[in-house]
Design goal:
By secondary structure, this protein is mostly helical. The protein is 41% helix and 4% strand. It contains nine helices and four strands. The longest helix has 17 residues, at 142-158.
Amino acid sequence: MGISKLDVLGQIYDIYGTFSSRLRVACVRGCTACCTQNVTMTTLEGYRIVEHLIHTGQRHLFHRLHHSSHHERFQPTITTNKLLTLCMQGDDPPEEKSCLPGSACPFLSNNECLIYLERPFACRCFFSTQKCEATDCAVVDPFLVTVNTVFLQFIEHIDAGGVFGNMIDVLLFLESEAQQKRQDIDASPNYPGGLPTNRCIPGIFVPPEHHSMIQPILQTIRKSGILH
C-alpha cells in the first residue's frame, strides 16, 4: 500500500516545522492578534482536522463553525497554483475581496488554539518579526513569503482535484463526510460550488533573488520522495 495523502501532508508539515524552528520571530504562545476566521486551506488539511475532532471527542466544536459561518469572512476565488498559471500565461488574476474584518477564529479559546497540533498550514506559516499588537499588522520577511508560497503549492499539488477555501466553509462541508475513512480521500465527493479546485504545480514560484536561498528546502522536499 502506498503512502496516504494525509501522511504526505504530515511529512510536509514536518519539513516546514524544521525550517520554521530556526526563524527569529516575535510570535509567542498566547499571541493571537492574527488568529482570525479568514484562514484558508485545502480539503486535505480539512480531513486531518476533522479526523482529529472525531478521534478526540470534540465534534461539538463544529457548533462554533456554524456560528461563525454567519459572519463575513475571506472566501478565495483562486488557488495558489491557478494564480501562478495565470501569471505564467500573462493573464490578470481576479480581484479578491480580502480586506474583511478579522473576527476571532472559531477555534480560539482563552488565547489558545483548540486544534493547535492539527492547525492548517496557513496558521503554521504565519510569523511576524514584530508584535502585531503594536501596529495592528504583521511584518513578514520577504523570503518567508516565498518559502510559504512554495509550500502552499506543494500542499495544493498533493490535494489536486480537491478544493480550496475558507477554513469554515471547508470544514462545514467535510462535517457531513466526517465518517469517511482515510483510504476514501482519493474518491471524488461532490464538492460544493463556489470553492476553487486544487491544481497540480505548473512550476515553482520563486523570485530571482531567492533562487539560491530556497534550494536547500527544495532539495529536502525532493529527497523525501513525498511527491512521487
